[in-house]
Amino acid sequence: MPLKVNLKLFLSAIIALITTNQTIFAQLPAVFGPEINKTVKKDELTRYYITPQRIVWMSDSSGKLITNPQLLLQQGIGQTFMENRTVCKIINKGSTVSGLVLDFGKEIQGGIQITLSQSNRVTPKVRLRFGESVSETMSYVIGDGTTGKEGGATNHHSLRDFMVQIPGLGSQEVGREGFRFLRIDLADTNASIAIKEIRAVATMRDIPYLGSFKCNDELLNKIWMTGAYTVHLNMQDYLWDGIKRDRLVWIGDMHPETMTISNVFGNNPVVPKSLDFVRDHTPLPAWMNGIPSYSMWWIIMQHDWYYFHGDKNYLMQQKSYLLPLLDALLSKVGADGNENLNGFRFLDWPSSENKPGVHAGLQALMVIAFDKGAELCKIMGETKLATLYSSKANQMRQHAPDANNSKQAACLMALAGMIPAEKANREVIDVGGVKKFSTYFGYYMLQAQAKAGAYETAINNIRQYWGGMLKLGATTFWEDFDLEEAANAAPIDNIVPSGKLDYHRNTGAYCYIGLRRSLCHGWASGPTSWLTENVLGIHVTAPGCKTIKIEPHLGDLAWVEGTFPTPYGIVKVKHVKLKSGKIQTTVSAPAQVHIIKV
After folding, report:
1. Rounded distance, CA 264 to CA 270, Å?
2. How much is the pTM?
3. Distance, first Cα to last Cα, the chain
């Protein structure tokens, strides 16, 4: 039924709008009636217009087929004009295709806006190729939507490569994907297009960076911020894993993102919204995302989110699902204390072929999930169940399978208290340095190294592994990265020269083959929260940040300072290494937060 506007209510609403400074959104029910609340929803995201920073490539350098391209680097307004002014023209003579590649300077989530001048009274057709790398914009083949075979870009999850018509004397907005680069080619034969301006239209949550990290090593500062920005881009309608591909709520992948959000942005509603989304779409006894380990990560996140933010009302809303889920996990433990989980047995992709390692990792993850589930039961007043799950964790802890040289399994076993962290680090995790690290489980490898006291080793691993992506031109962290494989790789922000490896196009495995690989993946943000926790030294030891232990580990750093968001306000910390080697610490915290210095 169409909405009916009551003119009298409409006028009174406008008067109220003017006199009370209320937003028009707040007045919609008065204007259209209460049923409007069922059909209208305010967007949680904010739009930003971004000007291209440089022209990476042009099909023609003579100035005859592409004229005045530098105009595209001027800030636009999104409004066309009637009078004759200088524009950028792209011209096709015969079937020759002319085009160029623009660089917007940084990975963004969104689309583009193209504004044409009066020179176009027709509706020209252009081919747009969005890219997280320059190589992706230069791909001529649309690859298989699942595997990215032939190295081609894919239109899987979001459109990367497609045709669109642009109206003369108007603007057209198109695209909703993750990208930094754009290739635009005029598709019509014997035609021209007169472009007044091109702008990227980025969509993000307008939220402050409450947490911060700064030290005397600029590389670590950049890594911390890159991890924070990577997650920020993925905080869209829900908390995604990637803004190009994997625009889904993968609940296990969310854990590193959730830790980054808690350390940088504080209590943001996108996290509980996403946790609830997967819960509500996973009726028991099914596993979240079809993966038993991901249901365990959901339990772990409920625990960690409660500890950082202390929202007991939200926690209690999970009780009717949490307890049966813990029981479902309980049923998957044999009498001998070994896990026998059904479904897709998965830790991360690089470890997936190591079946004994996967078993060891799942055994450890169940111990962690039962430990944290038991603590949540105590908080919810279920003391008998807390004892049951704690006992099961202790039983399983006594059955420590061989990690089979899996760094993923070894780090989980160390964190679960199944093997000494020093042993796990010495015999498995630290072997070969960052060889066999993964962008997802690298976070837990760093955590295990911290538990082993190998802080300086972990800091150097961050510099080498995550810094390796920055050396290749990354502005966000990637779904997958192999430092050895990238030894002869060219940066992603230019045309790949002869003799150099095109890392984005010609490497990859599993679900991220070739250009299908995401170069903005939230699960890769681990160093951000790790540096805050272990170098800045902020450890939350009581729910809602009521108690925070300050225990810094500077390694080879001379000083570090930063901030950390709590439900009561910002904690400020600074550490300076004195000539004696001792650390001088200054802390400023809200009165409600009890600080323990170590």
Report:
1. 14
2. 0.93
3. 65
CB atoms inside a 10 Å sphere around CB 476: 29
Q: Which residue has the tokens 């959730």?
A: 258
Per-residue pLDDT of 171-220, as tens digits, reads 899 999 999 999 999 999 999 999 999 999 999 999 999 999 999 999 99
CB atoms within 10 A of CB 289: 23
Containing 164, the helix (H) or strand (E) segment is strand 161-165
> What count of other Cβ atoms lies within 10 Å of the Cβ of residue 195?
25
Beta-sheet strand order (sheet of 594-597):
538-542, 547-550, 594-597
Do residues 44 and 64 lie in contact, with contact meaning Cβ atoms separated by under 8 Å?
A: no
Radius of gyration of the chain (CA): 27
Domain boundaries, the chain: 7-42, 47-204
The CATH code for residues 47-204 is: 2.60.120.260
d(CA 303, CA 296): 11
114/72 Cα distance (integer angstroms): 10
430 neighbors 456 (Cβ within 8 angstroms): no
Q: At residue 376, what is the residue type? A: L
Question: Minimum mean pLDDT among 147-156, 364-373, 409-418: which range?
Answer: 147-156
Asked whether the beta carbons of 143 and 151 are under 8 A apart, the reply is: yes
Examine residue 356 and say whether the peptide bond preceding it is cis (omega within 30 degrees of 0): no
* CB contact set of 247 (below 8 Å; sequence gap of 6+): 157, 158, 236, 240, 241
Structural contact between residues 125 and 199, judged by C-beta atoms closer than 8 angstroms: no
For residue 167, CA distances in Å to 88, 117, 118, 125, 171 come to 16, 10, 10, 9, 7
- For every residue of 482-527, DSSP letters joined together read -TTTTTTBPPTTSPPPTTSB-HHHH---TT--GGGS-S-BGGG-HH
What is the secondary structure of 190-253 as a DSSP string? TEEEEEEEEEEEEEE-------EEEES-HHHHHHHHHHHHHHHHHBSSSB-SBSSS--S--TTT
- Could you tell me if residue 433 is left (phi over 0), alpha (psi between -120 and 50 degrees) or otherwise beta? left
How far apart CA 443 and CA 230 sit, in angstroms, is 15
* CA angle (436 as vertex; 443, 424 as ends), nearest 5: 65
